[in-house]
Amino acid sequence: MRTYELTDWMGPECTGPVELRVPADAEHLILIRAIAHAVSCREGFEPDESTDITVAVDEACTSLIRRSVPGALLTCRLQVTFGTLRVAVSTTTFDGGVPSEHSFGWQVLDTVTDSVSAWRYECDPRRGTDHVVHIDFAKQFARPPRG
Fold it and tell me: How confident is the model at residue 71 (pLDDT cuts 50, 70, 90)?
C-alpha cells in the first residue's frame, strides 16, 4: 500500500502547512508573529499584506491565550492554497466562549483579513468544563502569486 505524502493530495500551487504548537502563553507570541511574517513574505505577499497577516495572527492568538486553561497548547497552522493564505489558531479555554464579533480585536481581524470565523468543539465527554476554541481566517494575494 502506498503512503501518500502531503504534496500528493494538496495539488499544484499549494504549500505548507506550517504548524506551530506552543504553550498558550503571551511570551510565545513573538515566535508566532515571526513565523507568520516569514511565511507571508516567502509566499510573495506585499509588505502591507504581510503586516496585515502578522497583525491578524497576533490578534487571534492573543484572544485565545487570554481564555486558555493553564497548561494548554496553542496551535497555529498556516497554509497557502491557490493564492490564499489560510490560518487556523486553536487552544483549550475555560468557558468555550468564542470572541465577540463586537469586540475591538474581532473588528481588527475582520478589517485586515478577507474572511474570519470562530467556533468551538462542542462535545468531548472526557472534558466537562473546558472546550477547544478555534479562530480561522484567510487572506488572498492582492496580485497573482509568483509562478
Answer: very high
